[in-house]
Amino acid sequence: MFSNGTEEVPQLRIEGRIMTKMQRTKGAAGERELFALLSEQLGVTVTRNLSQTRGGGADALDVPGWAIECKRQEALSVASWWTQTQRQADDLSRKPILFYRQSRKPWRAVLDLSHVAPGIFTAPGSLCEISLDAACLVIRESLP
Fold this sequence. Notes:
This protein is α+β, with helices and mostly antiparallel strands and 144 residues long. Helices cover 39% and strands 25% of the residues.
């Protein structure tokens, strides 16, 4: 707990960072929003990975072959978010994909082209930022 001057604010340490209850609530709402959109577009029920906080895993694991990370923040930190996304996906032997959104802006996705077109992009690190619709198309094409 810490005091914001008028009240005690509960905290939680996630991935080495301290998050307030308001930040966690916003993040969870962002996950629910994104996962509803993904479920609709992919035809796969996407749900929150409830063990992610304790285990440091991906936010969703329902899409075969993919480790989904979701960020709903105003201050962008795409490079560090990608590092986290890549590490979690590697631990799970899945392809990483990062979705993020700021207020009043559309969802964006970041993925490595070496995971979707390995014949063309042979080395990891060819990152691509695309719309939610384009990301869903890429994911659908990769599903069995």
